[in-house]
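QUALITY CONTROL LOG
STEP: pairwise intake check
CHECKER ROLE: data steward
CRITERIA: each record must contain a sequence immediately followed by its structure tokens, with no blank fields

ENTRY 1 OF 2
RESULT FIELD BELOW
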Amino acid sequence: MEVFRRWGSGIAISDFGSGHLNKLMLLSANPDFIKIDMSLVRNIHMDENKATIVKGMVSYAQSMEIKTVAQGIETKEELQALLSYGVDFIQGYFIGMPDYEAKGILRQAKEEICRHGIG
């Protein structure tokens, strides 16, 4: 993964909070970003349990100097809640549709890496 950092890329763990990722795995990955899963984001403004979990994730990430990204924001209320918890970045249909041109560029880069390797 350090090769990607040398190229100026960051490392992100996606769908954080949706699976069995534990803190030891998080530490060994040494990510620059954690992307909070949309299952935690959905209706977070109405669910104190979700809010408590996300606040803890954000606090932990801040203490480790990891940036947070909330995925799947679809309402103004979700956005307001997440910003109040200190989330660094946001994404979702409430903000805007996916950028398919960027996905095409990423796909081309992946194909080049597969053809020529990393180095």
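ENTRY 2 OF 2
RESULT FIELD BELOW
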Amino acid sequence: MHRIILLLGLVVVVSAVQPYQGAIPIIRSAADVRWDGSYNFHYESADGSLRVEEGNIVNKGSSNEYVAVKGSYRYLSPDGRTIEVVYTADENGFVPRGTVIH
């Protein structure tokens, strides 16, 4: 009896594992790092995933210098929903907003 339960449990675990679908190609990307320390980049994958970010140095040369960042990312969840997050990171910390953040 214990063997049957163990076997059924193993079958459930094995059947729940998602098969590896291979690498998803990047179809578009760019990056720019400037002499003043600012930067931006973006990339998009063939599955529609997207990431965009830019950063700028604020209060350059002072003791209160920091990088202010704005960005976003998007991807398709396993259940087919588009998940999108927009964020900032600055003197107020990391602040995300998005479809799955409440």
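INTAKE CHECK: passed for both entries
DESCRIPTIVE NOTE, ENTRY 2: The CA atoms of residues 18 and 78 lie 10 Å apart.
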